[in-house]
Every structure is written in structure tokens, then in C-alpha cells.
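This follows on from our talk about sequence and fold. I would like you to pick a protein and set down its sequence and fold. Go ahead and set the record down below:
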Amino acid sequence: MNNFELQKVVEEISSHYFQKPFEHRVKFNPRLQTTGGRYLLRTHNIEINPKYYQKHGFKEIEGIIKHELCHYHLHIAGKGYQHRDEDFKRLSKQTGAPRHCTSLGEKKYRYLYQCTSCEQNYYRVRQMNPTRYLCGKCRGKLKLIPQSEIL
């Protein structure tokens, strides 16, 4: 699916589920890392993460599009468009837009610490000093597991 096909799909979903036209641009943005899509307030454009289409297919993208269109149509109408607003929650439920997208399942941590007593694992993105911390489960000492043993 390319940006042109994505634009047509978004326009069809907007007219079918929201009974309103989508009059701005939508495109795939491969730089998105932690989200399925985003609605840009200043330009009213929508960006979609292409990794979700590649990994989960059209059904997942359709849910992300519905979610972003909820933000879009509510913002254009001057209503509450944020996740915490009742207008957003109501419209999401009416259209069947998911609150969160499915995880990509990519490993985000780089360090693994393990308790020497109970072998509880602690996954961390940033490195830490294991001598300054104890296990939250049994108060045992922590040790860093080398990267070669994680894989």
C-alpha cells in the first residue's frame, strides 16, 4: 500500500463511519517508533506508522485510521479531541476505534539484571549500577547478565 492508496482508504473510512469528508493529507511516516499513528493539530494531517501495516495487515491500520479520524473530526468541530475527553471516548466507542494499537513486539530493552537469590529478571533500557539496588521481590543482590546470554 502506498500513500495514494492510503489517502483513498482514509477518505472512504471517514465518509462511511463518520459521515464527514476527510479534506486533508494522510501519509505513511516510517520515523514513527512508539505509536501507530498521529494527528497533527496545526496542519490537520494524519501520519501512519507503516510497520503496523507490514506486521499486522489492513485490519490493524483500519483501527489506527479510525482512532486518528476521531481526533481529526472532533478537533475540526471544536469539541474535546484528547483521549481524556468524553466526546473522544463516545465517538471512539460509536465507530469502533481502538484505544490502543497492537504491540509490534520489538524488544526495547538492552540490559538484563537478575537477582542472585530468586532469579527475578529486571529488563532495562538504560544501564544502572546493580550495587545500589536490591531485588524488589526478595531483597537479594542484582547482577548484570551479559548480552550474549540474553539472546
Observations:
- The first strand starts at residue 26 and ends at 28.
- The helical segments are 3-18, 50-56, 58-77, 86-95, 147-150.
